[in-house]
Each structure stands twice: as C-alpha cells, then as structure tokens.
Amino acid sequence: MNRMSVAEFKEARKLPLIVVLDNVRSLHNVGSVFRSCDAFRIEAVYLCGITATPPSAEIHKTALGAEDSVEWVYFEHTQDAVRKMQEEGVFVYSIEQVEGSTALQNLELKADQRYAVIFGNEVKGVQQEVVDMSNGCLEIPQFGTKHSLNVSVTAGMVIWEFARKHFLGKTL
Q1: How many CB atoms lie within 10 A of CB 124?
Q2: CA 8 to CA 78: how far, in whole Å?
Q3: Which of 7, 52, 81, 170 has its CB surrounded by the most CB atoms within 10 Å?
C-alpha cells in the first residue's frame, strides 16, 4: 500500500494544523484522534488538562502506533496552549456550537496560514474561557435528534475538511 515509515512521516510535509484536546477523558478517543492525525499528516497534537498522554496501552489500542508518528506536546492548561499558538500566528478555532460559529462546510482557508482546532471534553465541550480566547468557532451541522457527536468522530470530520480544503488539487 506504499505506506511511509515513522521516520519518513516525521520528515514529510505536514498539514499546517495543530489538533488540541481540551480535557478529553477517554483514552480510546485520544488514540482515535492520533490515528486520524496520522492519516492526514497533521503538524502536532496538543494534549491538555486531564487528557492522557502516551505511552499508554489504552491509547495504543486505538492509535495503533500513530502516537509514535505524530508529534505531541502536553499542556497542563489549555489556555497556555492557545496563548503559545496565537503568539506563533496560528489561527485558533474551537469546535463548539455557539452563536456566530462557522458551519464546517463554509470554512475558508488561507494558503499561508497555520491553524489549530480545539476539541473539548466528552460531556462539557471546550472550556468557555478557551472558546473566548479562540479566533473563531466551527461547528458541524446536525440534522437528527442529537446535538453532538463523539469527539473522535468530530475530530476525524474536521481534520478531513481541513485536509480536503488545504490540499484540494495539490499533492503532499
């Protein structure tokens, strides 16, 4: 299937996207997010607050080694991660249903911009203070009786949309 090695992955050009997990409880969700980040060659994962970090057998169970290929950093406070990214010129989106949020399908990207997306706790979502610090919010329109998706499913959809829009017509 012409897959690259971990060493090749680390040297390869990345999608200019940082994925931030804000107090995600489930280690299986963390592992699934790592796996999606590997699939779309994102820049890094920031693990914040109570979010578990590798090495972990439970993360590995769903990451299947992606925790070794994708760069990751731990922050005790998500707010510190947001400040660091914004100081580096990263445009930060929280993934939340809030007034004035942008529907994911309406996302517009600038070719020379780095981005970050923050995914929140399975029950409480992204912390309000973190939402307030963000440059904007994205949400996935939903049409059923539920008003939320599993955090790892949401991450996969959002990461794919960034990859699709960023690399449309381009080759990694």
Answers
A1: 11
A2: 30
A3: 81
Alpha carbons 50 and 30: distance in angstroms, whole number: 11
**Are 104 and 140 contacting, i.e. CB atoms less than 8 angstroms apart?**
yes
* CA-wise closest residue to 96 among 69, 133, 42: 133
**Interval 6-46: pLDDT, tens:** 999 999 999 999 999 999 999 999 999 999 999 999 999 99
Helix (H) or strand (E) holding 34: helix 27-39
User: Residue 43 is encoded by which pair of tokens?
Assistant: 């820049």
Tokens describing residue 142:
């939903």
Largest CA distance in the chain: 44
Each residue of 53-86: pLDDT tens digit? 999 999 999 999 999 999 999 999 999 999 999 9
The model carries a pTM of 0.95
Beta carbons of 139 and 104 less than 8 angstroms apart:
yes
Locus of tokens 């939320």 = 148
